[in-house]
Design goal:
Largest sheet: 6 strands, mixed
Number of helices: 8
Strand order of the largest sheet: 3-4-2-1-15-14
Oligomer: single chain
Order of helices and strands: HEHEHEEEEEEEHEHHEEEEHEH
CATH superfamily: Endonuclease/exonuclease/phosphatase
CATH class: Alpha Beta
Helix content: 25-40%
């Protein structure tokens, strides 16, 4: 991390944050063997500009992982640029455009990654809802409020595709369920094609799903998406929590995969609690007297959720070649 010359207050805050990161027990990734994936909803990042200490803290948290899906990134990317500066020259980002209307909320999706562990493969696209012909136009029956964003990556000799999204909020559970079903159906259709760039898929995001196995979660997973076993019970280190929000009672943020990826996930995964309690906000922002709400606009109201995947596929690939030869 390239924090450079910092004030004593920021140095003290970084030391306090490092203790919170250590408590999360994030497993170290190993070059050409494993990578750590994460998803983080950074509250209104770009709309509400962060203080310099907060930029340092966000960079420190992001730097624990190799590839991060960032949601609720806004159209102003200046704070993201500052974070990249502290992360250092090996880090890069691929991001979507924003939508101006209230449904789009001026939000982008971004994939932030360390090129020492992950490379971008070339595919980057927003997902469009299926269209049907109406007179001389092709129109969607249902739309995504914020288009899911898809990109392809390689780590070692393992190629895969990520999809990240921020599902609609609001009073209508049925409308949210329909949007989640729309995404599940689109994935089922697209990834059945022989022409998809890769069939290894990870889906990440803030799906605004309160509980696992409720009607919203069932819609999202109705076409085969699965939650890694390491995230079925969400933990911060050894401490079980009920959700990825600061209240720890809602499973909004998820990492999911198609069955082709099941063997890739190992037992390492969880959440990162950078907050701990209202009484300990002052450790990061001394003298600020931040309320919890003010604090969430400096860091976030969501915890990062992470999981580790195995990327060394030489053994299984060679075994398959031998097995195929025996079956001829």
């Amino acid at each position: 991390m390239h924090h450079g010359d910092v004030s004593p207050e920021i140095a003290k805050g970084l030391l306090a944050l490092k203790k919170r990161l250590a408590a999360a027990k994030i497993a170290s990734s190993r070059l050409d063997e494993t990578i750590n994936l994460a998803v983080w909803n950074i509250r209104e990042f770009g709309k509400v500009h962060r203080t310099i200490p907060a930029i340092h803290y966000i960079a420190e948290i992001l730097g624990q992982f190799d590839l991060i899906a960032m949601v609720e990134l806004r159209k102003d990317l200046s704070d993201l640029g500052k974070v990249l500066w502290f992360l250092g020259p090996t880090w890069d980002v691929v991001y979507s455009d924003w939508i101006d209307d209230p449904g789009g909320n001026d939000e982008r999706v971004a994939f932030l990654f360390d090129r020492r562990a992950v490379t971008f493969n070339g595919l980057a696209a927003e997902i469009d809802a299926p269209r049907t012909a109406k007179a001389k136009e092709y129109l969607a029956e249902l739309s995504f409020w914020r288009a899911p964003y898809m990109a392809s990556f390689r780590s070692g000799n393992f190629d895969f595709i990520l999809i990240a999204t921020h599902t609609r909020w609001g009073d209508s559970i049925e409308a949210r369920r329909a949007e989640l079903q729309l995404l599940a159906d689109w994935i089922d259709t697209r990834f059945a094609s022989d022409f998809v760039e890769d069939h290894d898929l990870v889906v990440m995001g803030d799906f605004n799903i309160p509980k696992l196995d409720d009607t919203l979660f069932k819609a999202l997973t109705s076409r085969g998406l699965m939650i890694p076993e390491c995230l079925r019970i969400l933990k911060v280190g050894d401490r079980v929590i009920g959700g990825s929000n600061l209240g720890a009672d809602a499973r909004y943020d998820q990492i999911l995969h198609l069955p082709t990826m099941k063997s890739r996930f190992n037992n390492n995964g969880g959440a990162v609690d950078f907050w701990i309690s209202d009484a300990r906000i002052d450790e990061l922002f001394p003298g600020s007297n931040y309320s919890r709400d003010k604090f969430t606009f400096q860091l976030s109201d969501h915890f990062p959720v992470w999981a580790q995947i195995n990327i060394d596929i030489d053994g299984p690939r060679l075994t398959q070649i031998v097995q195929d030869a025996k079956n001829k």
